[in-house]
Amino acid sequence: MGAVVAAAQGHGAKGDNVYEFHLEFLDLVKPEPIYKLTQRQVNITVQKKVSQWWERLTKQEKRPLFLAPDFDRWLDESDAEMELRAKEEERLNKLRLESQGSPETLISLKKGYLFMYNLVQFLGFSWMFVNMTVRFFILGKESFYDTFHTMADVMYFSQMLAVVETINAVIGVTSSPVIPSLVQFLGRNFILFIIFGNVEEMQNKAVVFFVFYLWSTIEIFRYPFYILYCIDMDWKVLTWLRYTVWIPTYPLGCLAEVVAVIQSIPIFNETGRFSFTLPYPVKIKVRFSFFLQIYIIVIFLGKYWLYNRLFPVTSLGGRVKCLNILKVFRVISKGVVQS
Question: Which member of 257, 270, 304, 307 is catalytic?
């Protein structure tokens, strides 16, 4: 069989009439075609007897006007090649995913890795926070002056490990912005290693206690929040604390860092540490304290920039707002005036 013959009563170009046609295909087709009647047309599905490419559909070169091919099923050789290529790419991608592991496995590994990192950091900062708190209640102000010698090792470890947060942001493990994370990492480590670690005279000052205590206060709420996030849990009280505690502690921490830098300037001037002389013909001695004075300005600008990032502030009802820090201070100051 290489043709289709059909006749039907219907309403067409000649009104109500009997319409019929005889259509000869280019090659043989299987008998028993499938007919489907709609309000607009008659769909006839015919299958080739031999699967091969035809130059055209019918023997006559000119296609009849009433004949409308189903272009959803229509393929030429280039379309077929693209389809085969797409299937091959899909097969290769499937093999690649199987070799790399399923997406669920990768997500589980990422969450496990982040959970362990945040847990280690939480344990480190909470140990320092509890230790400094207990020592303060027992020894009072005397505990201020040996804070560095009792906390330095753990603080060194925790602050060096914090580089992982910047790396995670760079490689896309977390969605945290890279620049704020890098600014905080570099700023804290400059204070820790250059101001405190390299100047023995600074290690016995009370400002060390305040810097370490304020850093720890921020982190003992931040890291548990991330830990719960890794296991898909949400504790609204902790969320509120995580996005509220930083409002007073962050500027206080900034102030403590500035005080530490100011107190170190006379020491660097006296010892000449990190100072250098420019080569001939200038031969000017550049004191490290000059850079520290510039760094004080950098601290204020950097913290101001970080503050003006939109931080989420969470209410106990769980509703998260993004507020500019200047608006926060405006609300606080307005409340003070009204009271």
Answer: 257
